[in-house]
Design goal:
Domain Peptidase C51: 210-299
Protein name: CHAP domain
Distance between the termini: 37 Å
InterPro entries: CHAP_dom, Papain-like_cys_pep_sf
Radius of gyration: 23 Å
Structural class: alpha+beta
Shape: globular
Strand content: 15-25%
Pfam family, one: CHAP
Oligomer: single chain
CATH class of the largest domain: Alpha Beta
Strand order of the largest sheet: 4-9-5-6-7-8
Number of strands: 9
Largest sheet: 6 strands, antiparallel
Length: 324
C-alpha cells in the first residue's frame, strides 16, 4: 500500500492522534534553527554582522527522511504518521544536512568625517575605527549528498528521485504548509527559501553587484520563479515605494484595514522610520488565521523568515493584490 511506502510521507500532514503532524514538527525544528542563529548572534559582542548561505530545502530533508526511515533494513517504519521517536529521527537528519558556523574578525578602517568649520567651509577629518565583524554562515548538503553519505542503494536512490520529482511539488506544499490551491504557488516558493541569509541569490539575480536592502528583490525573485513577472501579474521591483505605486496604478491596492489572502504582497511603513506614508519593507502573505496575518519576508534580520501581525496592524501600509 502507498501509505506504508516511502510515499506515505505525503499523508503525514495531518495529526494521526499523536498530537503532532509533519507541519507542527517542521515548525518546531524551524524554531530550533532560529534559536541557534540567535545564539550565535548573542554569543559575542560585535559591531558589524554579515550572514550568508542557505539551508536545505525542506522537501529534500523530508525525502531523505522518508527513504532512510521507511527502507531501513534493520528497522523499517511507516512515515505517514509522526511521533516522538520519528520526530527525533527527522531532527537528526535535519542537522546532518544543515550546519551553522560563525567566526569573528577585527578590522581597522579609515573613516572620513565632514564638518563645517564655522566659516562656511567643509573640513574633512580622517580617523581610524576598529570594528569587530561577526560572520555567520549556513551551509547544507543536498539530497544526493545525503544519499551518498547514508550509502543508499540504487532502489533507494530511485525512491528519492521519485519523491523529489516536480510533479509532486503540490503534494509537498500540502504536507509542509497545508497549501492545496494553485494560487498559492508564490507562497510555496517563498516558504522554500526560509533560512536563506544575506540575500545574495535575490539581489544578484536582480542585477546588483553587491548587497542592497533586498526584501523587494526577494519578492520579485519569488514572483519570477512562478512566471508572474513575465505574465505582468507582479512587478519586478527593488524599491518598496515602486512596488506600491505599481499596484495603485492598476487599481490593485488595499489599505491596511483589509484582510488579505495568501499570495498578496504586503507592504510596511515602520514606525522607527517616522511613518511617512512610504513603504520601508515588503513581503508575501502566507495566510490569515484567527485575526493574524502570517508572512514570509526577505531581509528580515538579513534572512528569509516567517512573521505574523494582527490584521490591521498600524505598521502595515497595505497590500498589493495580484490578478492571479
Amino acid at each position: 500500500m502507498i501509505i506504508g511506502s516511502v510515499f506515505g510521507i505525503f499523508f503525514s500532514g495531518e495529526d494521526s492522534g499523536t498530537g503532532m503532524s509533519m507541519q507542527t514538527v517542521v515548525q518546531e525544528i524551524n524554531i530550533e534553527y532560529d534559536t541557534k542563529l540567535q545564539d550565535e548572534k548573542t554569543s559575542v559582542s560585535y559591531d558589524v554582522l554579515e550572514m550568508s548561505g542557505s539551508r536545505a530545502v525542506w522537501k529534500e530533508v523530508l525525502a531523505v527522511y522518508s527513504v532512510k526511515v521507511n527502507t531501513d533494513p534493520d528497522n523499517p517504519q511507516e512515515v505517514a504518521t509522526m511521533d516522538e521517536s520519528k520526530k527525533q529521527l527527522l531532527t537528526d537528519i535535519f542537522w546532518e544536512m544543515n550546519e551553522i558556523r560563525s567566526s569573528t574578525d577585527t578590522k581597522t578602517e579609515t573613516v572620513i568625517t565632514e564638518t563645517d568649520d564655522g566659516h562656511g567651509n567643509i573640513v574633512e577629518t580622517e580617523s581610524t575605527v576598529t570594528q569587530t565583524y561577526l560572520y555567520i554562515t549556513v551551509s547544507h548538503k543536498t539530497a544526493d549528498e545525503m544519499a551518498a553519505q547514508y550509502g543508499f542503494n540504487e532502489e533507494q536512490k530511485e525512491y528519492l528521485a521519485e519523491l523529489l520529482a516536480d510533479e509532486n511539488n503540490s503534494l509537498w506544499s500540502q504536507v509542509l504548509y497545508g497549501i492545496t490551491g494553485t494560487d498559492d504557488q508564490i507562497v510555496t516558493v517563498a516558504l522554500s527559501q526560509i533560512g536563506t541569509m544575506g540575500g545574495d541569490p535575490y539581489w544578484s539575480w536582480y542585477g546588483f553587484n553587491s548587497r542592497v536592502e533586498w526584501c523587494a528583490c526577494f519578492v520579485s525573485w519569488c514572483a519570477n520563479e512562478c512566471g508572474y513577472i513575465d505574465a505582468g501579474v507582479i512587478p519586478k521591483y527593488a524599491g518598496c515605494v515602486n512596488g506600491v505605486q505599481w499596484f495603485k496604478d492598476r487599481g490593485q491596492w488595499l489599505d491596511n484595514s483589509a484582510e488579505p489572502t495568501p499570495g498578496m504582497i504586503i507592504f510596511f511603513d515602520w514606525a522607527s522610520g517616522g511613518q511617512d506614508g512610504l513603504s520601508d519593507h515588503t513581503g508575501i502573505v502566507q495566510k490569515v488565521e484567527n485575526g493574524r496575518v502570517y508572512t514570509v519576508e526577505g531581509n528580515s534580520g538579513d534572512s528569509v523568515r516567517q512573521s505574523s501581525y494582527p490584521v490591521g496592524y498600524y505598521e502595515i501600509l497595505g497590500y498589493g493584490a495580484p490578478a492571479y
